[in-house]
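Quick log. Single chain, no ligands specified.
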Amino acid sequence: MTFPQVFPFRMLFFVSSFCNFIPIHGHTITKQRHLLDTISQISMPPTLAPEASSPSYNAINPDTIRVFNVLSFGAVGDGVSDDTKAFKMAWDTACQADSAVLLVPGSHCFIIQPSIFTGPCKSGLVFQIDGTVMAPEGPDSWPPKSSKRQWLVFYKINGMSMQGGGVVDGRGEKWWNLPCKPHKGVKGTTLSSPCDSPVAIKFFMSSHLTVKGLKIKNSPQFHFRFDNCQHVHVESLSINSPAQSPNTDGIHIENTNNVQVYDSLISTGDDCVSIGAGCYNVDMRNITCGPSHGISIGSLGIHNSRACVSNITVTDSVIKHSDNGVRIKTWQGGSGMVSGITFDNILVETVHNPIMIDQYYCLTKNCSNQTSAVLISDISYTNIKGTYDVRSPPMHIACSDSVPCNNLVLSNIELLPAQGQIVANPFCWNAYRTIQTLTIPPVDCLLWGTPQPADQNDVNQC
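-> predicted structure:
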């Protein structure tokens, strides 16, 4: 990926203008040489994430590894025939063989009905996708007795690799156009009707998983979901759905720990990566995200539930043309804690809300105010630079009236308007900082120090 040519120009133009003044809501700040010297040290953009590679994983040696080709089990791969039975037979056989490869060969298109691939399996299993795997096309083609919430499920799998240079196609357009989806009803309304849509690939109660090299597109809902899993390594994925496709998170992680997501390109109609309750030790690095809703922790605490999330890191990444950059979102009425979160070295490009904490998250206009909230503490934002859409403030930090955010760190933040020269003011509510270096724009609305302990603190401890 090459760095956009317009961005360095805009940066240089603004710094040059800063030598004379910065317009902020009609006010002028006179040139100050020592301030300019300080700003010049933080004006270099972070390193851009390179494009994820699509390595070939086809070098399988049949002399040392047992290969189970789905074609040998009766799969046709013509894009018309139902190949579900052949896949299940190949799975059952490969699952019971040591160091086996279930091969989905290239130059074929396989239609698979909703299926659960169950373990435990022998060690070293590789699910090798070099061809194209497709879902049934839309709700009318979905088997009537199958769940409409999931397509390909991997259950109780330990030590499996899913890899290859192939494609997994959820064919989600007819699901996105259901009248119950946002803005799909008459005159843009959302109609009350059954609205279940399948996740493309779900790993449930599994461990020591590797997913790499695949292209996943057009899922009806989430593309990947890891639920109750541990020790997950995701690398070099390409995930793609239209910007207007609803609820198509790229990767959703729930009740899962020790996760690595590296070197991937994600473009969806919702979050690139979303972190749900019960997650800890998640490391995301070199993610190129957008268009999307950004990278999100939450939403958490829905229906007065308890949520604990800790030790989440997002580094060396790019978020572009998205509704949000890095976001933490919680519902009123929840409990628990979000802590130990690091966002570092992130470039944003024309993003509506580059930095966002929203403890008033609500999908309707009828959410009632509640006292309890998920505590948000020890959040670090460093080296976050780029441009924001002027229709939204560059930073939106709205914390609970009764459970304020605390121990926020902001350092080397430089967010400039994508158009024009007016620098919008950040928005803050009941949020406390412990460290803040020079930022552009200044974040004067954050409170200094430590808030008074709330009565809910004991409830919030995780």
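Helices lie at 6-18, 33-40, 84-95, 173-176, 457-460.
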